[in-house]
Design a protein that fits this description.
- The protein is an alpha+beta fold.
- It contains three helices and eight strands; from the N terminus they run E-E-E-E-H-E-E-H-E-E-H.
- Strands 4-3-2-1-5 form a five-stranded antiparallel beta sheet, with helices on one face.
- It is globular.
- The chain starts with a strand and ends with a helix.
């Protein structure tokens, strides 16, 4: 039996599809009793698309699975985790943290410039998962 521990929830997340805006709910949880540790974290997004759920080995992996599904319908979530200049270190991912670094070209992330993955981001500052991953590779190359 699943032993989900809800880590956080927001009912006021902006979802963006072109010029369209909608309100979505996000819930992130840890299944402490998961048989498969690679699926211990769960993120659920409820919005005009219905319900989309992602499971992963950390919060970013689970959220990325939700984002990928929503992108198929043209939706982006306006949260920091969807910004091209935001990423978690391996240590933050392993710890289950909701914090991430705000990245600047040519320099490492700084603790004083951290953001929360699930906090609001400007709608024009978010991008697709592929574009975010490409931006992260460019940042790595800039170091």
């Amino acid at each position: 039996m699943s032993a989900d521990r809800v880590l956080g929830r927001r009912d006021d997340v902006t979802a963006v599809r072109g010029t369209e805006r909608a309100v979505a709910a996000l819930t992130w949880a840890l299944d402490a009793g998961a048989d498969d540790p690679s699926r211990a974290y769960r993120v659920t997004a409820d919005g005009p698309w219905g319900t989309s759920e992602g499971r992963g080995y950390d919060l970013v992996d689970a959220l990325d699975r939700v984002r990928r599904a929503l992108e198929g319908a043209g939706w982006l979530l306006a949260v920091n985790a969807a910004r091209p200049d935001v990423a978690q270190s391996g240590m933050l991912r392993d710890s289950g943290s909701t914090r991430a670094y705000l990245l600047r070209e040519g320099r490492r992330g700084r603790r004083e410039e951290m953001v929360n993955l699930f906090d609001d981001a400007p709608a024009d500052a978010v991008t697709t998962l592929d574009a975010q991953q490409a931006a992260h590779r460019r940042w790595l190359d800039s170091l």
